[in-house]
Amino acid sequence: MVESPPLLAARDLTVVLGGVKALDGLSLDLMAGRRTVILGANGAGKSVLLRTLHGLIAPSAGTLSWARPHRQAMVFQRPVMLRRSAIDNVTYALSVNGIPAKERAARAASALERVGLAPIAERPARALSGGEQQRLALARAWALKPEILFLDEPTASLDPGASAEVERVISAIADEGTRIVMTTHHLGQARRLADEIVFLHAGRTVERTPVADFFRQPASKEASLFLKGELPWT
Amino acid sequence: MFEIFASLQAAWALVNGADPALARIVALSLELSLAAALLGAAIGLPLGALVAVGRFPGRRAVIVALNALLGLPSVVVGLLVYLMLSRAGPLGSWGLLFTPTAIVMAQSLLVAPIVAALARQTCEDAWRDYEEQLTSLGVSRARAVPTLLWDARYSLLTTVLAGFGRAASEVGAVMIVGGNIDGVTRVMTTAIALETSKGDLPLALALGFVLILVVLVVNAAAYGLREWSVRRHG
Question: Contacts of residue A124 in chain B, CB cutoff 8 Å?
């Protein structure tokens, strides 16, 4: 089988933040249609990698090349909601992205429906609970119909019930064909959501392994130390 | 001592009896100060937000200048507006000197820097929280200006009310460009100055009461609004 060119190819990315090398010549190809979870110890460069791939941080060296024009979105650990209703937060994102006014309401409503927030669409977004805000952030990203969705520790501030809801939504987004790239510090979550694990250490990709193999027998020494809990992690 | 009590009593009678001369002065004051607050806000709010999110050479100098303008000696502003509007001045042909419009112009010039400086601070704080999320959603810096202004609307309304207070309490500039003409450009502050120097303490005191009352009501409204918005929007 001939693989199509990767949706996103990152080559030799180096990012220096505050005099520290957060990424150190990292390369990574992201094919369409998979779910990648990035694992690594605290400070390995997971969040910086996501932000660099998403375009929020400009690499000091290296290249990012996209196979074609694309839509992308990102969900953060702590979503920022505008001081307006839940549904207006979604229509705002649609309007910024040039979606015609007459399509926005229906698209926003269906996104809220899919994350289970339709009944509280008119509530002020900032009055929602942490879990509801994170689902709203997912709805906002989903409504943009991204080809690739980056998620940075999306459940790190949530209780287990809210985390499970968020995981369900992430799976649903992936099932509709959006490429998922996320970081987590929750190994059970990585096992449930990932097709493959990318393991980072000191700003480099140390290994990339299908999820079952990774948790049975990681290929790298760093990853096995990490799984044994012998590397510090957030 | 007795004289003060007598004056207070007479002042109270004026306020209580809604003395027509008093009412006219109060109404004109409120009208002009409101117009100046709105005009100053129309200039100051976008200016403050632009400086908050903008990246342009000389940004620091603009911030320093804005903050310095907070301490602008109002008499000098009055003098400048006077020079502009006087018959030999560049805007002399408009015939605006010693009209209510001239007062609004001078007051707006005093209000705009206050609103701009406070709005800049507010928007800059908000931008720190929002930048990553808004950039991720595809919001440009120019597009972020109205978004930030709308999201900070409750604190910014307090800012505009502060501008209103500044306009309502101004004496010097208003005296210079308005001329304190009875029935035309006589406002509370200039009337107080005049009546005091004439020795008509009851009217001066009555106006003083009203002025203090206006400032109190405005501040109470600002406080109540903030409380309400925090409860509603978080």
Answer: 232-234
Tokens 């996320």 identify what position?
A182
User: Which residue is associated with the tokens 């393991």?
Assistant: A199
B132 with A126: Cβ contact below 8 A: no
Q: Is A78 exposed, middle or buried (0-12, 13-18, 19+ CB in 10 A)?
A: middle
Q: Give domain limits for chain B.
A: 29-233
Determine whether the interchain pair B137/A56 forms a contact, defined as Cβ–Cβ distance below 8 Å. no
Ordered DSSP codes for A143-182: HT--SEEEEESTTTTS-HHHHHHHHHHHHHHHHTTPEEEE
Q: Do B234 and A56 touch (CB under 8 A)?
A: no
Among B125, B130, B133, which would you mutate to test the A interface (most chain A Cβ atoms within 10 Å of its Cβ)? B133
| Encoded tokens for A36 | 């990648």
Is residue A104 within 8 Å of A87, Cβ to Cβ?
A: no
Q: State how far the Cα of A83 lies from the Cα of B47, in Å rounded to an integer.
A: 21
Beta bridge partners of A39: A199
A127–B137 C-beta distance less than 8 A: no
CATH number belonging to the domain at B29-233, selected among 1.10.3720.10, 3.30.1490.10, 3.30.70.1350, 3.20.20.150: 1.10.3720.10
Whole-prediction pTM value? 0.88
**Cross-chain Cβ contact B151/A82 below 8 Å:** yes
Using a 10 angstrom Cβ sphere, with 0-12 exposed, 13-18 middle and 19 or more buried, the burial of residue A1 is exposed
The Cα of B148 is separated from the nearest Cα of chain A by a number of Å equal to 9
Q: What distance in Å separates the CA atoms of residue A18 and residue A41, rounded to the nearest whole number? A: 19
Residues of chain A with a CB closer than 8 angstroms to some CB in chain B: 51, 54, 56, 73-74, 76, 79-80, 82-84, 92-93, 96-97, 124, 126-127, 140
ipTM surpassing 0.95: no
pLDDT tens string, chain A, 234 residues long: the values are: 556 788 999 999 999 998 999 999 999 999 887 899 999 999 899 999 999 999 999 999 999 999 888 899 999 999 999 999 999 999 999 999 999 999 999 999 999 999 999 999 999 999 999 999 999 999 999 999 999 999 999 999 999 999 999 999 999 999 999 999 999 999 999 999 999 999 999 999 999 999 999 999 999 999 999 998 866 554
| Distance (Å, whole) CA B99 – CA B32 | 11
Instruction: Give the chain A residue nearest B144 (alpha carbons).
Output: A96
